[in-house]
Amino acid sequence: MIDGLKLMFSGEELRTRLDEGIERHEEAAAHWTREAQRTKDDETDDHPLLPPHICHSEAVRHTWRATVLAFIRDHLDASEIYRMGAADPEFGELLPTRPESVEDDDDDDDGNNGESDRDDWCSGEVIADNEECRATRLDMSGLEIIKIERR
């Protein structure tokens, strides 16, 4: 008998999925690096200039995450089968990305009949707060969203 939900992955499948995650993080790090190098001439109403320290912080975070996933990948035996507990697939970013159109099941009990609550949407980790702006990393079902509020 197996206690709890266990997922089985071949070492080769794990490597492939980790490679995909590494690539996503490397692309995100490159994006944030480019974003930090933008100037006032690049700013538009639809794409405002972000404070460089926020962009740098995000680039460092994505670079670190790619490094973590590469470390895990490099220590797998492709010929083995790995049994994972509930937290392992999330930590290793092995689960498929949730489509944007799929709502988070956790929001169903809020009494809003499927309508999102602005306070819930805006909650997240504050990554910068100064006299210029406040930046918050929002948890939007795996999407990379940074909310910038200018003061």
- Given the helix and strand composition, which structural class is it? alpha+beta
The outline comes out as elongated
* Count of individual domains: 2
Q: What is the C-alpha radius of gyration, as a whole number of Å?
A: 19 Å
Characterize the biggest β-sheet. Answer: 3 strands, antiparallel
Report on the structure:
The protein is an alpha+beta fold. It folds into two domains: 1-95; 116-151, no CATH class. It contains four helices and five strands; from the N terminus they run βααβααβββ. The protein has helices at residues 11-36, 52-74, 87-91, 118-122, and strands at 7-10, 81-84, 124-129, 133-140, 143-150. Strands 3-4-5 form a three-stranded antiparallel beta sheet, with helices on one face. Strands 1-2 form a two-stranded antiparallel ribbon. The chain is elongated. Mean pLDDT is 79; it is low at 106-122.
Brief summary:
The protein is an alpha+beta fold. It has 4 helices and 5 strands. The longest helix is centred in the N-terminal third of the chain and has 26 residues.
Provide tags for this entry.
single chain, 20% strand, 5 strands, 151 residues, three-stranded antiparallel β-sheet, alpha+beta, 2 domains, two-stranded antiparallel ribbon
